[in-house]
Amino acid sequence: GFRFDNLTHYVNSHEEEFVETLRTWVAVESDSSDIGKRSDLHRMMDLTAEKLRVIGGSVAMVDVGVQALANGSTIDLPKVVTAQFGSDPDKHTICIYGHVDVQPAKKEDGWETDPYQLTDINGNLYGRGASDNKAPVLAWIHTVEVYRALNIELPVNVKFLIEGMEETGSDGLDALIVAQRDTFFSDVDYIIISDCGWLSRRPAVTYGTRGNCYFFAEVSGPKKDLHSGVYGGTVVEPMTDLIGIMDKLISPSGEILIPGIREAVAALSDEEWKIYQDIDFDVERYKEDIGISELMYNNKVDLLAHRWRHPTVSIHGIEGAFSAPGTKTVIPAKVTGKFSIRQVPNMDPGVVERQVTDYLNAAFSKRKSPNKLNVTMVIGAKPWLADVNIPLYEAGRAAVRRVFDVEPDMIREGGTIPIAKTFEDVTGKSIIMLPIGGFDDGLHSQNEKISRYNYIEGTKLFISFLHEVSQIKKR
Amino acid sequence: GFRFDNLTHYVNSHEEEFVETLRTWVAVESDSSDIGKRSDLHRMMDLTAEKLRVIGGSVAMVDVGVQALANGSTIDLPKVVTAQFGSDPDKHTICIYGHVDVQPAKKEDGWETDPYQLTDINGNLYGRGASDNKAPVLAWIHTVEVYRALNIELPVNVKFLIEGMEETGSDGLDALIVAQRDTFFSDVDYIIISDCGWLSRRPAVTYGTRGNCYFFAEVSGPKKDLHSGVYGGTVVEPMTDLIGIMDKLISPSGEILIPGIREAVAALSDEEWKIYQDIDFDVERYKEDIGISELMYNNKVDLLAHRWRHPTVSIHGIEGAFSAPGTKTVIPAKVTGKFSIRQVPNMDPGVVERQVTDYLNAAFSKRKSPNKLNVTMVIGAKPWLADVNIPLYEAGRAAVRRVFDVEPDMIREGGTIPIAKTFEDVTGKSIIMLPIGGFDDGLHSQNEKISRYNYIEGTKLFISFLHEVSQIKKR
Ligand SMILES: [Zn+2]
Ligand SMILES: [Zn+2]
Ligand SMILES: [Zn+2]
Ligand SMILES: [Zn+2]
Questions:
Q1: B94 touches chain A (CB under 8 A)
Q2: What is the pLDDT of residue B416?
Q3: pLDDT band for position B390 (50/70/90)?
Q4: Contacting residues of B for A342, CB less than 8 Å apart
Q5: Does residue A301 belong to the interface with chain B, where contact is any CB pair within 8 Å?
Q6: Residue B270 annotated in active site
Q7: Is the peptide bond before A346 cis (omega within 30 degrees of 0)?
Q8: Hey, what domains does chain B have and what are their CATH numbers?
Q9: Do the Cβ atoms of B77 and B64 come closer than 8 Å?
Q10: Number of residue pairs across A and B with CB atoms under 8 Å?
Q11: Residue A54: is it exposed, middle or buried by C-beta count within 10 angstroms (0-12/13-18/19+)?
Q12: Do residues B206 and B385 lie in contact, with contact meaning Cβ atoms separated by under 8 Å?
């Protein structure tokens, strides 16, 4: 039988130990976007492998090659950690995907605590990567650990695939999945991803994500930065050109101005509209959490639709311009605007790349500037959408019911977990996303956190989910 | 008599010593825009005072109070160093103004050498502040030092006024000039500024500068940065708003779009046109130095006019957005666009402040954004223009002829030396700018340098200038 109470009792009594492990992990500055922190990232992968070994996994650290840098040199990618617990052919095999790299974070960005020092404030554990994605990965590891500690046989075979480049586009992972399709993935039945959050205080199961096309628009002119007093008025400034073309991406009311993008988007069906209507979502609370007086859309359905199933343009920033506090009278010589377009069914990143490049080049050439524009798409991640009527999703719903005693919200994710689409395309396996992050965890933001509640109850959810999956009839 | 040869011989034989002193000064990171380097800046003022004391000056370090920071706290301003050499009422008294603070510089901005380690490459001395303004200040100090070393009486009384906040708007200096108008400045006949450069290889005398109004346009919305996947499409992004309004400042062809600005500008007279025609200026060489294929204007007169006597808008950068290498999927919560408008006769910074603020607020309100815009003018410096027909300017021209054996170009400066206008308004004294920086020194840019030639011959120019001033009839 399923000794759920024994298992959850163990989780409750080991809460402090689990928090301490998370503290150790958060302390590693595994920022994959900063090559200066690559050695921390390597250390993070080592820690992950070690943890999986200690609890009895057969662990491998898979070399996925090197990363090409802008200056033409290369740097080692972090190894991908795979692990296996059990190989009973009578059981289902699930593969847990997660990542242990993090977004950049600096105290001076506006963090109230040291981002790499896990800080408990009223039961919320603040730290970069706490919710995205270190605690969920640890919750999965603890799930296996709990079964083992209590000498209870795992109800399913469990594999892990943990990477360290998720935040910058999972460099090297696609190739690994393709290469191991007929080995590591051959006996996998289901792929589980817990790299997202709930929509409200109600637990959720996630069946879709937006993709993302991330662009660099580099405008270069003078061979070096110039003094705006000495040269201003005589040169065509790259910043003016860049601002000019980036202003053509999206209207004040949120309409994407690049021809062809909106036309490609799948129409909202009546059924989908109904799903959104049923979701527990408090628009006022959402506004309050963000701290703004007005949203782009003020009714629930429009808001959820524009969060999950419509594309949007975000301008993230400019590299090469003056960005420090204070004043500097500089004409930057080369500036790179960074923006991304969230992808939804039925958009195609290859087509979007061409649409954006053509559009910006045309807008730029109208300016008749002597500067040069170079548009590149540096990330092109497809959206993912699952069929929620398969047994895997019923297992997810049942696990939620057991632990939280409610029906989960069936939601989509506005963000991108690009690997979901790759898993689906390459392995043909079914994928489910089982989030344990809170709706207000502040992923990619200052003061990221996960609550003790979500971390600990989330572990119980995973324990319960293993059992539910084991109940699915073997084909 | 004027023992010019003895004096210049001394300069030649002490070149290495002068270069070493410059090396010591450049090594101090006296970046006035970075409050984290304030202690270096204080040390720089101490070094300056010490140097002036050693060569026999009566030196004072004048407390000019505190600087208000954005967070409401304050920090000590660097003291202003004043010095006096001689007080013979039968002689003219000149006051040398200079600054020893510098613009920001980091190796990774694209410097080929450590910006704070003076590096000699083929007779060019590379380092932040080398040309702006440490070498010219030292050349003036050495001028006095040489007279003293050779036991030759100074032909004029010499005062120094050296500040450490020039690069961020000379905080505290205006009040000092007002306060000491009837004391330190009461016996000053002429004010000399050497904080600019030549236009070509031909030495120049400068009779005008543009002013500068520097603006911060802060757009704030969400209370913290947001994940563009999770929130993109539902919030009105501050970056989109900021890009939208900054795109309305200037047209692709360089036309300022803010109503009233161009209308205020003094018309170009025939006489002025003639002066520009006579100036030694190679447009092709200028293009080559900048490294661009085409300028905003391609004939000499238009180009010089737009450099010196027309306003322009430069967008320097954005604070608060993502500015690092790599990718980050962030919606910045608060972004501050930084731009400046160069001021020329007959513009008035107070009027410009209102014109810009009204214009941007109107453009912003058309967007119907729930975000907030706050436009502030953080620097408002007037232009300065002198009468070149007074004896002071003949002294400048004569000094150039003696050292370089050519007639100087009579030029204006596109950049701002705001204190020139203040000196004129408060003290009523005549001002001359006597540059010794090279045309290609790269002020405010990567790889700033001064050549040994300009540093050493510049010192001789100042020696010669002291003599020429002594020849002006006392009123
Ligand atoms: Zn993640
Ligand atoms: Zn993430
Ligand atoms: Zn200067
Ligand atoms: Zn300067």
A1: no
A2: 86
A3: very high
A4: 228-229, 232-233
A5: no
A6: no
A7: yes
A8: 4-209+384-470 (3.40.630.10), 212-266+309-381 (3.30.70.360)
A9: yes
A10: 336
A11: exposed
A12: no
Q: CA B53 to CA A77: how far, in whole Å?
A: 58
The DSSP output letter for B279 is S
Separation between Cα atoms, residue A297 and residue A315, nearest integer Å: 19
Q: Catalytic residue among B166, B171, B189, B195, which?
A: B166
B447 at interface of A, judged by CB pairs closer than 8 A: yes
Task: Kindly determine whether residue B250 and residue A229, on different chains, have CB atoms separated by under 8 Å.
Answer: no
DSSP string, B327-366: ---EE-SEEEEEEEEEE-TT--HHHHHHHHHHHHHHHHHH
User: Quick check: is A237 catalytic?
Assistant: no
ipTM of the complex: 0.83
Q: Which of A307, A313, A322 is opposite residue B317, by nearest beta carbon?
A: A322
For CA atoms A220, A223, A224, A227, the dihedral sign is negative
Residue with structure tokens 């990965």? A137
Name the CA dihedral angle for A169, A174, A175, A181, rounded to a multiple of 10 degrees.
Answer: 160
DSSP string of A331-400?
E-SEEEEEEEEEE-TT--HHHHHHHHHHHHHHHHHHTT-SSEEEEEEEEEE--EE--TTSHHHHHHHHHH
Residue length, chain B? 475
Which tens digit of pLDDT belongs to each residue from A90-134? Answer: 999 999 999 999 999 999 989 999 999 999 999 999 999 999 999
Give B284's contacts (C-beta < 8 A, 6+ positions apart).
none
The backbone torsions φ and ψ at residue A156, rounded to the nearest 5 degrees and listed phi first, read: -135, 160
Which residues sit opposite A227 in a β-bridge? A330
DSSP code of residue A237: -
